[in-house]
Amino acid sequence: MRQFFHGLSLPIHIARVLLADPTARRRYVRVGILQTVAALALALSCMGSAKKAASAVESPVSEEDIAAEVQEALREVGIQEPVLEAPAAQEPAAQEPAVEAARDREFERRLRDVEAAAEGVDGGPSLPTAIAALVATATANSGAGKVTVTKQDDGTMKVERAPEPPSPKKKRRGKEKEEETGELTYKGFSLTAISFWVALLGALQIAQWVIIALSRDYHDAIAREAALLTRVDPDDEAIQPRVRVNVPWMRKKVRRRVRAMFLFAAGVPAALLLALPFRWVGMGSEAFTAITSLWGMWWLLVFTAAKSGQAWDAREGQRPPWFLRAWTWLTTRVPGFRWGMFKRYGEMWNQRTKEVFEPVATVERHPWAYAGLALARFIGSFAPLRFFMRPLIPVASAHILREERMKFGPPRPDAVSESRPAVNTPVSD
Prior knowledge:
Strand order of the largest sheet: 1-2
Number of helices: 17
Helix content: 55-70%
Oligomer: single chain
Shape: flat
Number of strands: 4
Distance between the termini: 26 Å
Strand content: under 5%
Structural class: mainly alpha
């Protein structure tokens, strides 16, 4: 527990050292605040665009869409003549009973004209003209709702109308009601509703990745200052930070994300095998979920340790990771598991994991300290805490290894792993 809380509190102690130095404090606070403001502005803009897109999807159908639907309906009943253009929808007046009755009588008259034209009665309008007039009447009565025209088995025409959309007058009433209650809104969101804050947090999570991709140089500079102030070897050389689009870093980030996905997926078959006995008691799904969750948490610890370049230093007598040792013992000592396919799977697993043996071994030597640091990193991954937490994680990881490095000294040049990055930059998850 002491090691766990040591790893959990390391970023706080490093931040206190940064804030105690005037020069480092000025850069650390200014960069964090500017990144937070930029991410907030970008997130609010994204929320407005998303709300507009949702409103466009939910808005009534346009007149062009209605005309296309009517043409399609006429083709289905075997009429190829063009339909007359429907008049534009008028804003309904006050919903008085007399007006509603007049509309109903007009609609019934148009419907009778269609039936008479379908039966071939002389002296009336043609069938296409009657259908067009009926559709125009239905459209005028229902606003811009969807209209469907179908031909019945007895030869009569049937027109179906969608429910009447809310009128602009009703919308204005809703707006007036909001003004009366004093409720604050932004881009259609209520600032007092939980949905607004959930949407804002989700947009911030996306916006912060964009901001970090453009200004990560400043985090590297802050991490170097923190390492020098706390007396550990920095991973990066001194640079002049600037805002830029670092395409090589973005490609490297994507490759490491893909590698992390493969590292996790490589252990899923073993998790399925371990969860298999629990199916006999009806808990197979729960057991598989628990095993894969623990498996993902383990890799979170490894990726947290790998933030420091010192975690990639190889030691003499280093063994394969614990899970590969356990799988080798299972497939060589336990009857029923000494099959060729299990051994080939173990070879594939070993090959896939070989490039990260060093950070895995680092976590095996300090599991509880990195568990605390991984928890601090997880808490700090939410916006806007990530702008202040991200440059501290590599330095905290180096501090966990500081005592070990002082005891055993730096690794010999011939013992450094070939899988360590060519440039002393911490690996990302």
